[in-house]
Write a structure and sequence with these properties.
The chain is an alpha+beta fold. Helix content is about 35%, strand content about 20%. It is built from 17 helices and 18 strands. The protein has helices at about 15-25, 45-65, 75-85, 90-95, 115-120, 170-185, 205-215, 225, 230-235, 250-255, 265-280, 340-345, 360-370, 385-400, 415-425, 435-440, 460-470, and strands at about 5, 10, 65-70, 75, 95-100, 105-110, 130-140, 155-160, 190-195, 285-290, 300-310, 335, 350-360, 380-385, 405-410, 430-435, 445-450, 455-460. The strands form four sheets. It has an eight-stranded mixed β-sheet with strand order 3-7-8-13-12-11-9-10, with helices on both faces. A five-stranded mixed β-sheet has the order 15-14-16-17-18, with helices on both faces. It binds adenosine monophosphate. Adenosine monophosphate binds next to strand 8, strand 12, strand 13 and helix 13.
């Protein structure tokens, strides 16, 4: 019997196949397969919007000199244990992890930053220049409770600036790149919430103040009793995470919690002041959020998240069919500085800062506001009549493709009516009709579907004529 060890489970494929066969023999109607929970296909009707977004990310990245990197989808589990922290929500609850047949512990990457830094160290990318600006676009995987804006397969576009020194101007440049992507998606009333969480020198002092506040030391408090179970544990392991809790009771508790700003060392204070000055110079709207910490271990100093404050109209297409004005409570992007990450995963000390935009959420907001993906790519529709024309159509399509003209066709259909119907559905306004007579005479009919006007022209002039009409 062949067995595969996956997720610590021994999968007995033969037995599964037998059961499957038996159930079909019993005449049961089998339900069609569905994509896994929290994971969506991107369908053809949505692709133009996605493609526009991906293209805008590429254009923005290139304009600011970020170079593309594509890291592997699977990573060693330890990479995230060490970088995100064993007590982070992602590691504790959201990893799609499994053991391979060879015994390696792997995980579907839950985020891009640790992977990019892993690749940077592994391939000695510092020789490409300091700092090195990199960007990526791709799927990430988190075992979350699916809801609007929270998926198990999510797509991010990320910008990282690695190496060089820890100049605050790089923090501002990363925020700018993320901001520009959201702006290109025509999302209005964007606001960057920004904070600093200090460095190895000043953070211990702040951590103590936080612990004292939550544990009630030096005052009379029963906060610990009011905290959720996770926060009680966070108080022992990583009190900064108390500020990140989304449970309503815990949100109320953090209202009077001490803020990092009062505990910063002079270097961090100055660094943060400069970051704010630079983003002000770039005219990026921002708000200080003293309790923004972000739940991963690798961050230091700057942390930020970007939100929209605009509301979609009541008749907007809300996810899950909801109606009524929509507020978007979730972050569309976020990031921060991670100067210690390289050391945490076995590299040399490397200053670094980065951020990522959640593309699924951006598309959701674009849809709610009715943002269109711009002009569709123009295509001609080629109709053939008869066998000779069908055969000659193959070379004709190649010639048009060579000239940069996109061609739609239904070469498998013979009837003119059926082909015209397909042309109409496909949205082409220019149709080429290639019949037996035209095939013999090396000519073709070009017809404008909007006006119905048509003319016959020599085949060698067709590419120029189509281009002229598309202009
Ligand atoms: P993070 O890597 O958690 O900092 O997330 C960066 C951005 O990715 C967020 O601001 C969101 O826009 C998006 N994002 C994070 N988690 C999810 C999720 N589960 N589903 C959809 N988008 C997400």
């Amino acid at each position: 019997m062949r067995r595969n060890k996956l997720s610590f489970l021994e999968i007995d494929y033969e037995n599964m196949a037998k059961k499957d066969k038996k159930s079909s023999e019993k005449g049961k109607v089998r339900a069609p397969f569905q994509s896994p929970k929290g994971m969506h296909d991107i369908l053809p009707l949505d692709e133009p919007m996605w493609e526009k977004l991906r293209k805008d990310v590429r254009t923005i990245a290139e304009a600011y000199n970020f170079r593309r990197i594509d890291t592997t989808l699977l990573e060693p589990l330890d990479l995230f244990l060490r970088s995100l922290g064993a007590s982070s929500d992602i590691v504790e609850k959201q990893m799609f992890a499994f053991r391979t047949k060879g015994g390696d512990m792997l995980v579907l990457r839950p985020e891009g930053t640790a992977s990019v830094m892993r690749a940077y160290i592994q391939h000695g990318l510092s020789h490409l220049g300091q700092p090195l600006k990199l960007y990526y676009i791709g799927p990430m995987f988190r075992y979350e409770q699916p809801q609007a804006g929270r998926l198990r397969q999510l797509h991010q576009a990320g910008f990282e600036i690695l190496g060089g020194d820890e100049d605050p101007v790089y923090d501002a440049q990363v925020i700018l790149a993320c901001y520009r992507v959201l702006e290109s998606a025509k999302i209005k009333q964007l606001i960057v919430r920004v904070n600093t969480i200090g460095c190895r020198n000043c953070r211990p002092n702040y951590r103590k103040k936080l612990t004292d506040y939550y544990a009630g030391r030096g005052g009379n408090s029963n906060k610990e009793k009011l905290m959720c179970r996770d926060c009680k544990r966070r108080l022992e392991e990583n009190p900064l995470r108390l500020l990140d809790c989304k449970v309503p009771g815990c949100i109320a508790l953090k209202k009077d919690a001490p803020v990092m700003l009062d505990s910063l060392c002079s270097f961090c204070k100055n660094h943060f002041k400069n970051v704010l000055e630079y983003i002000e110079e770039l005219k990026i709207p921002y708000a200080l959020d003293h309790h923004l910490v972000r739940g991963l271990d690798y961050y230091n100093r700057t942390v930020f998240e970007i939100f929209t404050e605009s509301e979609a109209p009541a008749d907007s297409k809300a996810p899950e069919g909801k109606l009524g004005p929509q507020k978007f409570e979730y972050a569309l992007g976020g990031g921060g500085r991670f100067d210690y990450l390289a050391e945490m995963i076995g590299g040399r000390e490397t200053s670094a800062v980065g951020g990522a935009v959640g593309l699924d959420r951006v598309v959701e907001v674009m849809k709610a506001f009715g943002v269109s993906s711009g002009r569709a790519v123009e295509k001609v529709f080629l109709i053939h009549i008869g066998d000779l024309a069908k055969k000659k159509s193959l070379a004709l399509i190649e010639m048009l493709r060579h000239e940069g003209i996109n061609v739609a066709e239904t070469l498998g259909k013979e009837s003119l009516k059926a082909q015209l119907r397909s042309a109409d559905k496909g949205g082409s306004s220019v149709v080429l009709i290639f019949g037996q007579k035209e095939a013999l005479e090396d000519s073709i009919i070009i017809r404008d579907l909007r006006t119905g006007a048509q003319e016959t022209i020599p085949l060698h002039k067709i590419a120029a004529e189509v281009k002229r009409r598309f202009k």
